[in-house]
Amino acid sequence: MPYAILVSDPLASTLVLLSLLWLAAKLGGEVAVRLKLPAVAGQIIIGVFLAILPGLFSSMPGLPGFLKSPEFLKFMDFAHNPEANVLAYIGIVLLMFMVGLESSVPQMMKVGWASLRVAVIGVIGPMALGLLGAYFLLQDGTPFAVDLFIGACLCATSIGISASVLRERNASDSKEGRVVIGAAVIDDVLGLLVLVAVSGLAAASSSGGPLPWGELGRTLGLAFLFLLLALTLGRWLSPHLFGLASRFKSEEKLLPFALIFAFALAYMGSLVGLATIVGAYAAGLILEHHHVETLQVEENRSLEELVQPVVAIFAPLFFVLTGASIDPSVLLHPTTLLMAGVLTVAGIIGKYVSGYGAGGGASVSIIGWGMVPRGEVGLIFVSVGRSINFNDKPLLSPEVQAGVLGAILLTTVLGPIGLSWVLGKSKGQEKQV
Prior knowledge:
Strand order of the largest sheet: 1-2
CATH architecture of the largest domain: Up-down Bundle
Distance between the termini: 65 Å
Helix content: over 70%
Low-confidence stretches: none
Strand content: under 5%
């Protein structure tokens, strides 16, 4: 049986799967770039196509039998391959570390209040519009907790997707780029609090118990304490840590120690309930040029030059698997399509208006579109809603899940497209001037 050859060595079959994912990422990115779209949009879309492949193989007549075997179809289930997902997870952590390296704490402080205003509007706006849309779309008698959770799913912002487009367009270190990244980081904290509060509300509504205000306060306190310590104590410690690293006699020290620092901070962030990507971003933000200058001179390369190739290898896996994790078949029902369309409009408008909170002459359209993508953050919200037991049933029914997933997919694709377009338009205007 030909498939037996493929799986005779599980590790070797994983190499084949990764080769296919990297090929898909390059093809999707190439098509997107030729269409003047951001590469990340093509990577997500081709990920959705990969999710369709097992169904096509199983229903297509004339194909060899091994292509329809359960073992091969399981192999082609890219989104649930643990090895690929681990590498994709590393990719998004590295991407956020790289984005942090391209800015600094003093630069972020200059846009701190602007980022906070954008983040607050970017949570309240889409959550209110999503709740309103869900209220009118769902049948009478739907628990308010369901409407509220749907609104909560729209308040998230994917740092990684917007960060990738900003880097692709050389806009990460612009004022708008720093505001978007800063606001997305704050969004992660606020979104976490919303998720804890709404989940607690759903559980309390189902069981009749009190709301978990103590847990909510604890999460908020730990999150802000972590960020405060990371940006103060961590910024003071990092030059001393890399000073010690420079005493090692072995070669190639800068990149390994930088990754140790980034992964350690990412893990510490997860301990207090934050997403690991926030800790990784904080690590890059802390590491300034003079902290690692000795090692950079010794190795004759900057830290950014060392991290960039690693990001280029692993980050595309994350975006392909983000698309592959969505089942397109659930999006085809008319009711689902209507819900997805309404929530997409609510999600885009709610995030776009957050750009008006930046002020200071910043581009509303760049910031607004930069806040639109939901990506992996929105998917996390949906998975939590699916796991909450409400009156002996999942809080989000399969139909509601499909509608919300459709909105997340559309905002994930339309967000980088819109951001790339307004960035290109802005660059064109600068050249004319």
